[in-house]
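Format notes (please read before filing issues)

Several people have asked whether sequences and structure tokens are stored in separate files. They are not. Every record keeps both together, in the order shown below: the sequence lines, then the token lines. Line labels are part of the format and must not be stripped during preprocessing.
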Amino acid sequence: MLVYPSSIDLSSRTLRYLTGQLVVRRREIGTRWRRLAAGRQALLVLAHLRCGDTYAQLAAGFGIGIATVYRYVSEGVDVLAALAPTLDEAMTTARTKAFVILDGTLLPIDRIAADSPYYSGKHKRHGMNVQVLTDPFGRLPWASPALPGSTHDPTAARTHGIIDALAQAGLKCWADKAYQGAGRLVRVPFRGRRLKRWKRRHNTTHAKIRCVGEQAMAALKGWRLLRKLRCSTNRITDIVKAVLVLHRTSA
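Then the structure lines:
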């Protein structure tokens, strides 16, 4: 097998942050010796999450076994996922903002036609539904647990308690047409083709606000592992939380 050097488009601050968290983890469990130092393990985890490198590629590049790569990646993801903010914490932060932007995204997965709960009729592919909140400055304070792709966005938002949390906080929220009927505080554009002029102006202003959330979502998907997940669906929630923590650190 040929091995070649590569690069990760992240700052050294992100590497230092993850290295520090892994050092703390090793002290807690009393680790004495590892094939890779904490810094190298952090680099391995970042290569997997940011670049989407497979276990086989990482095993060849770091000179360790595939099983060891799996353990190192799983440990790194678990450490990061534990640091992800809860919805209550996100709402506490969001109360200081003028509004938030709510959007849902489908994370593609490698499932077959028989796995109907994961098939999204809207996107015509298998995936997991994740709801994301964005503040007016394009920062991502929170991402939801992953649900099967057949779940509609309003249903997912209610399942995670987002609508109730917004109501309790009295926080205005901008969302797309899919969230029609989600609640008084969830503002959506007008539907239809032949709209009055003032409604068209409203939709234009609404789209300008929502584009901040779209840009933040695109930045989140800059972590290439999220473009096609090939792991167990039970691990996707932790992966999303881990990516969110690293994204907030590198922003």
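For reference, the curators noted about this record: The mean pLDDT is 91. Residues 144 and 157 are 9 Å apart (CA to CA).
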